[in-house]
């Protein structure tokens, strides 16, 4: 922080030709005027130290003061996970005067702005910093206070979720389509394959716990519904197959005496097995094509919506 205090004038002999600043013991800050700066919505502040506190105090010949300290700050940041994991979070850090009003103390960024290290790396985000130029005046209804602000843009890296969520869930959807290749006679094999795939996809969900649906939730729910549709389709095809087989067995049985059966013995009104076979073949042909087209359309729409939102 820089500020000018005209009451402080160090001796000129303290300066040399190569020195613009004179170091002062930081302990003297307890007897000096200091700006009452605080960080808005801060949760925790820590000062790492070994032997002494990492802070310094310097003064120029004009009375310009420079106070610097090393602190680790933890800030609260409201986030919106609607587009997770293609979301971009915007946090901010605001330095504001707690005691002095805007007409008494004005905050503004130094000509050098802020300096960030090129070594800043995070596992899940790509950080960027944007300075809000000029002084920001905050009016709480009774008084106005000056402040400065820097925005922190956190762009999430989607590679992790592409490799651990989207590609595996897509492969499991493809595995469920293998049920179309299993004949209805092998009922246990097709049923076990589809149900196992469904349970696996349900257990794959991993995302922040919030009260609204996220983009990844929409994707996983669509995959679950798609696999469940395959299960329903396979069950219905098996039903049509065994129903047709049952009617064929009935049709080849010898006709009984109408007096013994208590009826006329006519089977003209009974459904024909060819009808069930026809519907079974139709379902086996159309279902894979329809589900594949729906999956492709959803992929294109879903990625376009959230990728465009990320770019904008």
From TrEMBL:
What GO cellular-component annotations does this UniProt entry give? plasma membrane
Superkingdom of the source species: Eukaryota
Q: How does it sit in the membrane?
A: Multi-pass membrane protein
Q: Where is the Neurotransmitter-gated ion-channel transmembrane domain?
A: 165-251
Q: Where is the Neurotransmitter-gated ion-channel ligand-binding domain?
A: 1-157
- One Pfam match, by short name? Neur_chan_memb
Q: Where are the transmembrane segments?
A: 165-183, 219-239, 290-311
Give the location in the cell: Cell membrane; Membrane
User: Any idea which UniProt keywords this protein has?
Assistant: Cell membrane, Ion channel, Ion transport, Membrane, Signal, Transmembrane, Transmembrane helix, Transport
One GO MF term attached to the UniProt entry:
chloride channel activity
Tagged with keyword Amino-acid biosynthesis: no
Q: What is this protein called?
A: Glycine receptor subunit alpha-2-like
Q: Which lineage ranks, top first, belong to the organism behind this chain?
A: Eukaryota, Metazoa, Ecdysozoa, Arthropoda, Crustacea
């Amino acid at each position: 922080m820089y500020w000018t205090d005209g009451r402080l004038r160090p001796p000129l002999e303290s300066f040399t030709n190569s020195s613009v600043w004179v170091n002062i013991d930081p302990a003297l800050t307890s007897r000096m005027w200091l700006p009452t700066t605080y960080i808005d919505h801060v949760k925790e502040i820590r000062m790492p130290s070994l032997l002494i506190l990492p802070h310094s105090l310097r003064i120029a010949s004009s009375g310009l003061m420079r106070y610097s300290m090393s602190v680790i700050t933890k800030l609260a940041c409201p986030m919106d996970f609607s587009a997770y994991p293609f979301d971009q979070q915007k946090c901010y850090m605001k330095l504001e005067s707690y005691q002095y009003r805007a007409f008494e103390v004005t905050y503004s960024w130094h000509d050098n702005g802020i300096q960030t290290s090129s070594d800043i790396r995070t596992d899940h985000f790509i950080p960027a910093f944007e300075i809000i130029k000029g002084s920001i005046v905050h009016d709480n209804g009774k008084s106005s206070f000056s402040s400065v602000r820097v925005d922190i843009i956190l762009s999430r890296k989607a590679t992790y979720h592409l490799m651990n969520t989207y590609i595996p869930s897509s492969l499991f959807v493809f595995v469920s389509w293998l049920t179309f290749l299993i004949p209805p006679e092998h009922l246990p094999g097709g049923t076990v394959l589809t149900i196992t795939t469904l349970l696996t996809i349900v257990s794959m969900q991993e995302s922040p716990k919030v009260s609204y649906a996220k983009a990844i939730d929409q994707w996983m729910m669509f995959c679950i519904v798609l696999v469940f549709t395959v299960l329903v389709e396979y069950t219905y095809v098996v039903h049509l197959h065994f129903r047709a087989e049952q009617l064929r067995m009935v049709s080849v049985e010898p006709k009984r005496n109408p007096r013994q059966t208590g009826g006329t013995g006519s089977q003209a009104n009974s459904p024909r097995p060819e009808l069930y076979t026809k519907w079974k073949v139709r379902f086996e042909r159309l279902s894979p094509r329809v589900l594949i087209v729906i999956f492709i359309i959803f992929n294109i729409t879903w990625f376009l919506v959230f990728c465009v939102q990320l770019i904008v």
